[in-house]
Known about the structure:
Helices cover 57% and strands 5% of the residues. By secondary structure, it is mainly alpha-helical. The longest helix has 34 residues, at 44-77.
Amino acid sequence: xxxxxxxxxxxxxxxxxxxxxxxxxxxxxxxxxxxxxxxxxxxxxxxxxxxxxxxxxxxxxxxxxxxxxxxxxxxxxxxxxxxxxxxxxxxxxxxxxxxxxxxxxxxxxxxxxxx
Length: 115
């Protein structure tokens, strides 16, 4: 549903995807899930593209965060000792890797500006 006025607020609130025009009423802007910044409907495909890219970026960030947790946390806990390999990540290296993981998520998210 797309609307910009008070008469559209009920439909905007009940719709699965609700889009308000930027110059619409405050009630419509509050209820809508997406707000276009102006009156131009030509920006709607760009908004849909941006939302799809954002969801894809969220999945990528979750994937890399889980990979980090699946690999580095067991190494820091000393799981290799089971295989008689006495190598373990020190807490300082584990914290540096965690910081790198956070930085990589932020840098990956900043790629949205250039896509």
